Amino acid sequence: MQEFDHIQSLWQSHSVEVKISSDEMLAQAKKEVNSIRNRSVLNIAGMVISFVAVASLWIFFDFQSWTTHAGIAIFLVAIAALTVILIHGHRLISRNDFTTHPNEFLVSLKQYQLNRFSLYNKMYWIYAVALTLGTALYLIEVLTYMDLWAQILIVLFSLLWMIFCSTLVRKAVIKKDRERIALLIEKFERLGSQFKTQS
Q: Any transmembrane segments, and where (predicted)?
């Protein structure tokens, strides 16, 4: 056992300094920035598709209750508000070219990080409450046309889905997003310091 502890202490005390050239780091950063930008565009496209899908309910169905119309309207307002926030975030990450203006891009990246933090911690709950209220109002009329077992199943599924998204999915997305952006900020700060030492 002492031999294992000795080997472990030697291993931990042995540090290898990994040197990555600024070109390699810039290539990695470029790949990650493009990934964040593409994901941002996909999120915006998904929100636009969701808006059109929910709005099409008014076109294809003749709802009689005001609660259904109010539920759909709340859904649309929530989706539109979140889409505007996502577009603002996309502009932050896309407005500066990091190869020509790395310091400006770093400032934008830090603003984007704060924007995402606000989105996940403040706006998410407003969005979740709006969707819950919209769903409840929408289901008042829709569920009256269904059997009792279907009503219970739909309400139960809706509640479980919202709880699942609000807990497990939200935490996983926040953690992954935070790590990705923090790593990217660190790379740009290291790139900036390498360029300063080279000049």
A: 40-60, 66-87, 124-143, 149-169
Residues making up the chain, counted from first to last? 199
Q: Residue 18: is its pLDDT beyond 50?
A: no
- Residue 144, Cβ neighbours under 10 Å: how many? 10
| 25/31 Cα distance (integer angstroms) | 10
3-state DSSP of 147-189: CHHHHHHHHHHHHHHHHHHHHHHHHHHHHHHHHHHHHHHHHHH
CA 108 to chain centre: 17
% the chain with pLDDT above 70: 79
Q: What is the pTM of this model?
A: 0.72
The Cα 199–Cα 189 span in angstroms is 16
Cα–chain center distance at 61? 32
